[in-house]
Structure formats: C-alpha cells, structure tokens
Design a protein that fits this description.
four-stranded mixed sheet, 500 residues, single chain, alpha/beta, Dihydrodipicolinate Reductase, domain 2
C-alpha cells in the first residue's frame, strides 16, 4: 500500500517551490540566454540581455524576485490513481494555502497581484490567491506537481484561433508573434498547443512552456520528426523577424519553440499560443510519502560574471529640472541615466487621476514637468529602499495619455515595450518623451532607487502613486519628442530574410 502524503508536506513543497522560482531561473534558461548574449550583434539588444543576466545572477545570490511581477501561481498536478493525500480539504484550498504561505514569507515577500473580482471591484486579494490549478489523474501512487509563476505581461499576449484544417499553422504563428510587440518581454519562449478543443489547445500551450529547452541540441543534430522540423523552422523564422530583446531589434527573440498536439475534430484546427517572458520561472517535484520536496539551486558558475553594458555611457538627466528644451534634445535609441525624483503610477492610478480631472477635482500630486514610471514594486525588506521594481507594459496607459499630458503638464513616461500609433502622435504633439527600462531586470533596476514613499492612493497597494528618488537609473529613449520610435526602427534594421 502506498505511503500517505501529508497535507503539510504538499503545502510546504509548493510554497518552497514558489519561493525558489521567484529568484532562480532554470539552468537551461540561463545557459541559453548566455549563449544568445554571446552571439547578439545588436548593441541595444545585447545590452538588454546583459542586464537580464546580471539581474538574474543578483536575484539568485540575493534571494529576491527576478521580476517585480511575481506572477500568478500555476500548479499542474499529476496525481497517481493509487496516491493517498492525508487531507479532508479540496485540492484548491491546499494549493491556496501554499500560495498564501509563499507570498507572505517575511524574508522574501512576493507582490500580491491577483484581484478577486475580474469585472467590477477588482479588489486585490492581498495574498495572491487563488492559484490556477490543473489536475490530471495518472497511474501510480505518487503526486507530481509542476509549479510555475506566470506574469501578466506575457499572459496578456496569449492568443487563440481556430484555423481551417488546410490552413498553415506556421503562417498564423508568424503573423501573431510579429503583432505581439514587445510587451511579453522577449527573449523568451513560445508555447503552442495544436488540436483537441479550445480549452485543451490553450492548456497544452501553457504546459509546453514547461518542457526543457532543447533547441541548441535540436539545431546541432537536426530534426528527427516533422514536429521537430516545424519547431526548428518556427524558431528560425521568428528570430528572422528581427524583433530582438525587449523589441529593440536583434538576432534573438525566442530561445525555443515548444509544441504539444492532441487529436482533433476533422473540421477543426484549434491553435493556442502563449509566450513566456524573460522571467521564465518553473520547477517540478514528486512526493511519495517520504516527506516534503527539496530543491537544488543552479550552480552560480552558470551565470556570466562580467557582462558589458552601455548604461554607464548614458547622458545624465536631472529629473528635478526637466524642461521642454531638454526633452526635445533626446533622440530615440539614446541611453539616459536618470537622477532625482520619479513618480510612479499604473492603470488604477491613471484611471483615478483622469476621473478626478473630469470631475474638476484637484490632483493629489503635481505632474507638471515631472516623470512618471509605470511600475508596481515589490515591498522592501531589510535596508532596501524598495523591492524589485521593473517596468510594466506601457501601452495599457495609452488611453490616458491625452488627458494626462494636455491637462497636467507631465513631461516624461517610463515603462516597457512599444506605444501605439495614436499614443506616439500624442507624445510628439505635446513635446514629451517615452523611455524604457529593461523588463526582466527588476532587481537590478531597484538598486538605482535610493528612497521611496507613497504619495497618494494608499489603498491601491502596489498600484499606489509612489515617489522614488533615483540615482543613475538606466533607460533608453523609446519615443522621442519628434515621434521617432526605437521599436519601429530597431526591428526593421535587424529583420532578415526568412530561411528557405
């Protein structure tokens, strides 16, 4: 008879796994990203990859999150039909208790991101519950769990379609990836689920991202099946698009393409596509009743120690003396080093600000000639000014740009990824600028923040308006006051003919 698996062992194992993946990349991701850094020819993309690798090593050593978006917990259970879990609680409750314990760990608190009501109040649950639970009953008497944390930037770029059986999946994937922009924080992975039903295809796409990275080996030996041939072809064609790290233009957009398939109705071809960002976080364990799981960190020697970045060569900018004339002198693609007072604000804060403007109410902060950073930071621990504080996807704030810029005098925005066409026109019309920090380098970015305080909207938690004091915070001019965009010119420069 199988040994019973204690509820506490299952909870502790999941909780420890979620903490573990918050600061450790999988070894195969580190190795693949380091190889991409070595072969990258685009200076901007190489610098971005260098920052991501530096951040990853710092997070591994410091045991702090590699990304401020510590994600939603995705738990994939494979429960043996003969396994015995000593618990009277539903599996969802067990999973949620594990997530709660992980997110509220005092030595490394994770950012609470989940809101309870998706339609109306959208109130933060405060502990990142509930988890997204997937269960498969299999043979055997053990319980295996693959634990992943999925950030919103890449999750928001998930796509689904139902093609005709005669349509090309490859063509649809290429069109879709090219249209995703950089909000999913490449370089990363693309997971595909083909077949089954709508829900099955999407579940397969997400699970595919958990498979080991084996593209270097596949390229070296050549494909041994049509599916491997398709993976290799998509890998080459996606990278030939020239999107590059952070959408800046470069040789590497994806490190691997994963595909899972399932039998399907003769009239259908459902396809799910889910990208995985540079914060690739997952680990698996199996319990057999002998106790909780333990996790072995990757060898720190996997990370390159010395990485050349261009941040130290940037133009120094005093945020406390911003002027229209200075902002007009910045050019798309230029590196800046920001020093001074930097406001923060994301979706919820922007909604409140514009609502107050419409109602004729005074704003709680003066935005004139200021810079605002689209960020929801992790809480500080110890002597930190703030926890990991990387940028969020900027185009979610596009709809707020016109009222904010025209009625407050805001001068500069900082985020990640591209802005939409109308947003770029608005930025240029008001003589403003949009800058980007590297998504996936949150812990590294936080080291440039010397102090932090909440100025307004305390009830919004991580979405409250903070004021950071920063010193030499590296950013790139993404959209300058003339409307030029590095996210347009960079990929065009590095786009290559598709492989024959």
């Amino acid at each position: 008879m199988a040994r019973p698996i204690r509820e506490d062992d299952l909870i502790a194992s999941i909780s420890d796994a979620l903490q573990f993946i918050s600061y450790y990349h999988p070894a195969d991701f580190v190795t693949s990203l380091a190889a991409a850094y070595d072969r990258e020819e685009s200076p901007a993309a190489r610098d971005a990859i260098g920052q991501i690798l530096t951040n990853s090593r710092m997070a591994a050593i410091g045991h702090r999150p590699m990304c401020q978006d510590t994600g939603i917990a995705n738990l994939f259970f494979r429960i043996g039909i003969n396994a015995r879990i000593e618990s009277a609680r539903p599996l969802q409750e067990i999973a949620d208790e594990a997530v709660r314990r992980a997110w509220l760990t005092e030595s490394n608190p994770l950012r609470a991101t989940v809101v309870s009501d998706p339609l109306f109040s959208r109130k933060n649950t405060g502990d990142n519950t509930p988890a997204m639970v997937h269960v498969e009953i299999v043979s055997g008497d053990t319980v295996s769990v693959h634990v992943a944390a999925k950030g919103g930037g890449s999750e928001n770029k998930a796509r689904f379609t139902v093609l005709n059986p005669s349509d090309s999946v490859t063509d649809w994937v290429l069109r879709t990836v090219e249209g995703l922009g950089a909000g999913w924080c490449p370089p990363g992975l693309i997971g595909l689920g083909v077949g089954g039903s709508a829900d099955k295809a999407m579940a397969m796409a997400k699970e595919a991202l958990l498979d080991p990275i084996d593209m270097p080996a596949l390229r070296a030996r050549g494909p041994a099946s049509k599916l491997e041939e398709m993976r290799l072809d998509l890998f080459e064609r996606i990278n030939a698009l020239g999107i590059g790290a952070q959408g800046l233009g470069g040789l590497t957009t994806v490190l691997d393409v994963k595909i899972r398939t399932f039998p399907v109705h003769a009239a259908s071809q459902p396809v799910g596509l889910i990208p995985q960002c540079a914060a690739d976080r997952h680990v698996a364990f199996t319990l057999d009743g002998s106790g909780p799981a333990s996790f072995t960190p990757p060898d720190i020697s996997l990370w390159p120690r010395e990485l050349a970045t261009g941040a130290a060569q940037g133009r120094r900018v005093d945020l406390d003396t911003l002027s229209a004339q200075e902002v007009a002198s910045w050019k798309a693609g230029e590196t800046l080093l920001l020093t001074g007072r930097l406001l923060t604000g994301r979706d919820a804060a922007h909604l409140r600000l514009t609502t107050m403007l419409d109602a004729g109410e005074p704003l709680p902060v003066d935005l004139k000639d200021r810079a605002i950073y689209y960020v929801g930071p992790v809480d500080a621990v110890g002597d930190e000014a703030i926890g990991p504080a990387g940028p969020t996807t900027a185009n979610r704030m596009d709809k707020f740009l016109e009222p904010i810029l025209s009625r407050t005098g805001l001068r500069v925005m900082v985020g990640k990824a591209e802005r939409g066409p109308e947003a770029m026109e608005t930025i240029a019309r008001h003589g403003c600028a949009y800058l980007i920090a590297v998504g996936g380098a949150a812990y590294l970015v936080s080291k440039a923040i010397r102090s932090a305080r909440v100025l307004a909207f305390h009830d919004l938690g991580m979405e409250a308006i903070h004021e950071f004091t920063v010193e030499n915070m590296p950013v790139t001019v993404a959209v300058d006051a003339g409307g030029a965009s590095i996210h347009r010119t960079g990929p065009l420069r590095w786009r290559r003919p598709a492989p024959a």
